[in-house]
Design goal:
By secondary structure, the chain is α+β, with helices and mostly antiparallel strands. It contains eleven helices and ten strands. A hairpin with a 2-residue loop joins strand 1 and strand 2. Helix 2 packs antiparallel against helix 11 and helix 3 crosses helix 8.
């Protein structure tokens, strides 16, 4: 490629100039330096295309979006209504401070709390449930099985129809329910990978048993405060927050979901946060290793859910799903789906891409959009 061609390309790309231009004249640049300039320009062009796509998505998204690379936010959006019942009034608009029930996106935080205890030798991945709760009959279920959804335990969300509707169902009540009904459950770990919320509710109870603290207090002290996530709370705390700025969940038909007795179970869900706070989590956990060491983060974002020594097709680390995509490479992600809330958080370790969609309206606006954005970023 001659220098005239390079100059013409730079001219026609003009609207997107590299941030750092070389000090020496263009004819003296090496091929590597020229390629570096064009890589930077191409990256900027693709970012602009991503922004255009996100602006289009935001027109129908009720919630928040963040697109970032490394520790820099490239695009951010927040908008829509906290409750469709209240109409388009100013006090009903979603703001950067409005809280979303982040559902299963919170499982990575529960996993990080367990791994922090493991790193401090307070818990072992090989310990059994009965080491913490002797009254539970599942001695073959280990901490590692809970983390990786390979425990074989039943899904507690399926118990709802048989529970009292006038009494919030707590983590301790879940343990008692498993004790009382243990004869009806056949529990065989490492038989298959099965995503079950019971696993992470029990992990929260293990944290309480080991530390002697409430789950909420341990998470706040050891994770939320170090990550500066000052606007993140638990369902069990909402009533004590004055003037809480809360989004309501809505189904596809715009029906607002009501409160539910299972919201009181922690560890698997029932954490409320903002897009800004989750971006702080991403930086503290994945980039700066301020919560647990790089060694343990690397384990968390690597497949761990082996079945008899073999990984299944659906990969899971510790609190995180993992996809090894032939086009987009390794992706670490987790969705959140609960009572009208619908989220997806994706992190690509290779180039530190972070994409977050939070929504309190299940209208599928952001379904499949992460892959579309990565197609643009990768020039597919």
């Amino acid at each position: 490629m001659n220098i005239i061609t390079i100059l013409l390309q730079v001219f026609f790309i003009g609207f997107s100039q590299p941030e750092t231009l070389p000090d020496k004249p263009l004819p003296e640049l090496s091929l590597a330096e020229i390629n570096s300039i064009f890589d930077e320009v191409n990256s900027d062009i693709r970012n602009q295309e991503v922004i255009l796509e996100l602006e289009s998505i935001s027109k129908n998204l009720n919630g928040s979006i963040i697109f970032a690379k490394k520790d820099s936010i490239i695009f951010k959006y927040t908008g829509g209504l906290k409750s469709f019942k209240k109409g388009n009034r100013e006090e009903n608009l979603i703001t950067n401070q409005s809280l979303f029930e982040i559902a299963s996106v919170s499982k990575q935080i529960t996993a990080a709390a367990i791994l922090l205890l493991v790193s401090r030798d307070s818990v072992s991945l090989e310990e059994s449930l009965t080491d913490f709760f002797p009254e539970l009959p599942f001695s073959n279920v280990k901490v590692k099985h809970l983390l990786t959804h390979t425990s074989g335990l039943p899904e507690y969300l399926d118990f709802e129809k048989g529970l009292r509707v006038d009494t919030p169902f707590s983590n301790q009540m879940l343990i008692q329910y498993l004790i009382d009904n243990s004869s009806t459950f056949k529990v065989t770990p490492e038989l298959k990978f099965e995503y079950v919320n019971t696993n992470y509710a029990l992990l929260a109870s293990i944290i309480e048993r080991v530390t002697g603290q409430k789950f909420e207090d341990y998470i706040r002290t050891n994770i939320l405060l170090p990550a500066e996530m000052y606007e993140t709370y638990f369902y069990t705390e909402l009533q004590s927050i004055p003037n809480v700025d809360l989004c309501k969940g809505h189904l596809f038909n715009k029906r607002e979901e009501t409160d539910n007795i299972l919201n009181s179970v922690l560890g698997d869900k029932s954490m409320y946060s903002t897009a800004d706070n989750l971006f702080k989590w991403y930086k503290a956990y994945y980039l700066n290793y301020e919560i647990i060491s790089k060694r343990w983060v690397d384990k968390a974002i690597s497949p761990q859910n082996k079945i008899k020594g073999v990984l299944p097709s659906e990969l899971y680390g510790y609190g995180l799903r993992i996809e090894k995509n032939p086009f987009h490479r390794k992706l670490v992600y987790h969705g959140g789906l609960w009572r009208g809330f619908h989220h997806i958080m994706t992190y690509r370790p290779e180039d530190k891409i972070f994409i977050l969609f939070l929504s309190n309206f299940r209208n599928r606006t952001h379904n499949g959009k992460t892959d579309q954005l990565l197609d643009i970023i990768d020039g597919a």
